[in-house]
Amino acid sequence: xxxxxxxxRLKCLTRDRQTMFWTLLFPLxxxxxxxxxxxxxxxxxxxxxxxxAVVNNAAYEQNHDFKTILEDVSKGDDRIFNLTxxxxxxxxxxxxxGKIKGYITxxxxxxxxxxxxxxxxxxxxSFLYNYRQTSSTVNSILKTNPxxxxxxxLNDLSVRKEYTREVSGTSAAPNNVLNYFxxxxxxxxxxxxxxxxxxxxxxxxxxxxxxARVNAAPVHKLKIFLINMSAALLVHFGEMLLLLAYLFYxxxxxxGAKTGFxxxxxxxxxxxxLAFGAFVSALIPKxxxxxxxxxxxxxxxxxxxxxxxxxxxxxxxxxxxxxxxYVNPVNLLTDAFYSLYYYDTFTRYALNMGILGVFVFVxxxxxxVIIRRxxxxxx
Length: 379
Known about the structure:
The protein is mainly alpha-helical and 379 residues long. It contains 17 helices and 4 strands. It has helices at 2-14, 17-38, 58-62, 64-72, 88-96, 119-144, 153-158, 178-190, 193-201, 209-216, 221-250, 259-283, 288-305, 312-320, 322-326, 329-342, 347-372; strands at 50-55, 81-86, 102-106, 110-113. It has a 4-stranded mixed sheet with strand order 2-1-3-4. The longest helix is centred in the middle third of the chain and has 30 residues, at 221-250. The chain is elongated, with a radius of gyration of 32 Å.
């Protein structure tokens, strides 16, 4: 009996083209577009030499120390600046045309002229400030101890010591793209709610003739419901495995080394999606259109706040409304995937999975309580 009903339900689910599109093909298409849009996002974070000019006047030519240092940091593959020596009029024109970030002038003091603020301008300013500070220190030492120059003062100044040590809680490199794909997986898990919604609707006799025939069958409706939900879970988890395979092998999305936990998280996400869809369907005693609208509204709103459309919103919510991060199942799933990739410990992952487990329990319990109380005077 079980195998017959299970296989029959599998056939019904896989022949539902509309549901199969939204739960399988749509995430695959969206992942492809994400890859096209975000493939070079990390490259934009790499450091590129800063375009800067120096006014080539007599003071600059006579300041051999500064000229040598400025030319040294403008050579090689790891250079800081793309340096251009021009007249002051040409420097002004280059700055106005946006071809350089600023230009340096050498007179009684070394100056910097910019027409905007930003990271590149701050780097130039920091470089000049560091040079002036070092130069002032050398002059002060030489005034009181002229012999210091022969005693290796310049060699001592060239040695920089760090008195702080950076300690990272992870061996993984930060990746700005992964959050988009992880939130896509989380959204796809919630889309499993279409299957859960369908299973509840198909046993509510007041909504369709098919459900009326199911309730009239000589099999307990909860037994049929559990069999159908098992079939739906198998189909949806299979779809999620296909999505993961496409992301990993096709789009080269990095999931880290904890493959088993990634699969476990995906399975829990599928269970959560089905339980959520079933709960929404049982809770809303309306037609299919209203239930689909409610399911989509929650899924898309949760995806937005998890950073799928705009990554920074995830951190804005975490800083200003932290409770919203913990009641958003899409964000919890996204966080679970990212914690597996980024952190070497399981503390944050365990917290996310624990809260997701609470959600699954609440949705399943609520669905059971609502369904078991539904009685029909006639069919």
